[in-house]
Amino acid sequence: MSKSFEILDVSLRDGSHSVRHAFTEEQVRAVAKGLNAAGVRYFEVSHGDGLGGSSLQYGLSATDELKLIETAVSECTTSEVSVLLIPGIGTKENLQAAARLGAKMVRVATHVTEADVAAQHIQLGRELGLKTAGFLMMSHMAPVEKIVEQAKLFESYGAEIVYVTDSAGAMLPQDVTARIQALRQELQCEIGFHAHNNLSMAMANTIAAVESGATYIDGSIRALGAGAGNTQTEVMVAVLEKLGYQADIDLYKILDVANQVIAPMMQQPQEITGGSLLLGHAGVYSSFLLHAQKAAQQFGVDERDILMELGRMKTVGGQEDLIYEVAQHLIKA
Amino acid sequence: MTKLKVGIIGSGNIGTDLMYKIERSPVLEMSVMVGIDPDSDGLKRAKDRGYEIISTGIKGLAERLDLVDIVYDATSAYAHAINSEILIAAGKKVIDLTPAAIGPFTVPPVNLNEHIEKSNVNMVTCGGQATIPMIHAINRVVQVEYAEIVATIASKSAGPGTRANIDEFTSTTSRAIEVVGGAKKGKAIIILNPAEPPIIMRDTVHALVEEEGHEKEILNSIQEMVSEVQKYVPGYTLKGDPIFEGKKVSIFLEVNGAADYLPAYAGNLDIMTAAAVQVGNEMARHLLREKEAIK
């Protein structure tokens, strides 16, 4: 079977959460060089919370993301650099700056029910000549009909790809199949899928997505992403080949990036700990994990209690401030 | 006491909520509601309450300028530029609730009286009204080097104007954090949460101050400022205790609204309209005193 999808590597964006937003220029250069050599078509470079995400709320970037984007672009001969933009955090101005430095793709992300805040940003992406996608975060929180409605909004603004994004790693393969199939039926544009491995479902969900018609799929090397990380890029290449797809990525070369470049920069293993498991179980945004661990230590409460409460409160991406408030409240309870 | 006549342009969530609050003012009298959609809920409600209504926007109001002394603009930044020019040329006072920011930023407990003589003042944003008093409260104790605010509001309380122009919220709020709050650098983040029942507006302020310590004075200053804001938004409260970590101060707030138009969860609506009425009241008192002096 010929290739029918593009792999987008998010190690340098989602992985920003795992390294507490401390990527250095040297690290980004090495990863970018490796991804380009391995034949990865697109890879993403931004603060974990997208352009403009450097903040006390989410963590300050040790190195300005624009510097990192510029560095990554300079290593690309065939690969192209994508950026993430979450309206409400990042602005059109941030996107213009990234495009000036050579970013070729933008993924505009909103909570799964709030696509209409992204109209201007998606339009700008197209005007700048970027490959432009809409990214429906926390897709597990909305029923299929709602996802179709919101995806159609993205498409109407000009999105060329709409992603189903399992930000909490809370979906099971049948959830993915139902959503991607419905979008495939109702939309003209391409469909993408982004997984988190909090319930050890990332690879299975990715297969479900590809088999349901997704043509853009995300991965991170060594699963370097928020929570238990994403679908592991190098594993995905091998698995998709076994399924008969052609990934057009050099397996040895991507393994070299994993072993020689990514492994040494990991601050902790991307294993499914009690905390990350609960993210998936309670349906909580994956980047809350390290903040919940910090707050648990600071206030002497159980990180699991914090995460369960955040799930119960139906928090959405970006509400990291609530973690500290919940931790404070738990001591008093 | 005589009252000044008020017009409201924009019959959406903000304009309609404002109408109810103006009814309680001792110096302002609701006169006319101006919209562009004759079927809008705001225009219908204004008509039911016996006010003049104009459904042809600023064009219609321009022909009936006798109806107003002070005009609140709750349209969009783009429309405001046009509206403001027409109204100011006619000698009217304009209170701007859009992010246009043609006139100076006003946050009542920080600088209420500073700009009441100006012909156009701007009310920043809901997130700015909720958090800038806190930044100022820290800054009057110790210099704030950097302040960042996170406003989380119920999806239902964000109207189409806010949604289409979300960058204006972040840029206008960031600037006002610096200009009014006193921080050397400001940043603003807004998050929409669709949970049902709708969440109450929450605001978090993270500040980096010039030097550590001063905890007690900062806490006292915050408490005093909370009481100031409560005078016009009684549902403005601290959630948990402020957290001090080296030079970082984090303050957590919740804003329950008065439920004049949208239910109480929409504290974002309330803090904006209640602050705007404070400004209108002061402007009116000032104008009435001037008139008195001329006599």
TrEMBL record, chain A:
SUPFAM superfamilies, per the entry: Aldolase (SSF51569), post-HMGL domain-like (SSF89000)
UniProt-recorded Gene Ontology molecular function terms: 2-isopropylmalate synthase activity; 4-hydroxy-2-oxovalerate aldolase activity; manganese ion binding
PROSITE patterns in alphabetical order: PYR_CT
Annotated EC: 4.1.3.39
Record: residues binding Mn(2+): 14, 194, 196
Keyword line: Aromatic hydrocarbons catabolism, Lyase, Manganese, Metal-binding
Catalysed transformations (reactions): (S)-4-hydroxy-2-oxohexanoate = propanal + pyruvate; (S)-4-hydroxy-2-oxopentanoate = acetaldehyde + pyruvate
Domain named Pyruvate carboxyltransferase: residues: 5-255
Keyword Repeat assigned: no
Annotated catalytic residues: 17
Listed GO biological process terms: L-leucine biosynthetic process
This protein's record includes keyword Zinc: no
Domain of life: Bacteria
Binding site for substrate: 13-14, 167, 194, 285
Residues marked Transition state stabilizer (site): 13
Enzyme kind, highest EC tier: lyase
Gene3D superfamilies according to UniProt: 1.10.8.60, Aldolase class I
Pfam families, per database record: DmpG_comm, HMGL-like
UniProt similarity note: Belongs to the 4-hydroxy-2-oxovalerate aldolase family.
Protein's recorded name: 4-hydroxy-2-oxovalerate aldolase
Automatic annotation (TrEMBL), chain B:
Database matches in SMART domains: Semialdhyde_dh (SM00859)
Domain Semialdehyde dehydrogenase NAD-binding span(s) in chain numbering: 5-118
Known catalytic reactions: acetaldehyde + NAD(+) + CoA = acetyl-CoA + NADH + H(+)
Active site: 126 (acyl-thioester intermediate)
InterPro entries: Acetaldehyde_dehydrogenase, Acetylaldehyde_DH_C, NAD(P)-bd_dom_sf, Semialdehyde_DH_NAD-bd
Keywords: Aromatic hydrocarbons catabolism, NAD, Oxidoreductase
Gene3D superfamilies, A to Z: Dihydrodipicolinate Reductase, domain 2 (3.30.360.10), NAD(P)-binding Rossmann-like Domain (3.40.50.720)
Family according to the record: Belongs to the acetaldehyde dehydrogenase family.
HAMAP family found in the cross-reference section: Ac_ald_DH_ac
Protein name from the UniProt record: Acetaldehyde dehydrogenase
Source species of the chain: Psychrobacillus insolitus
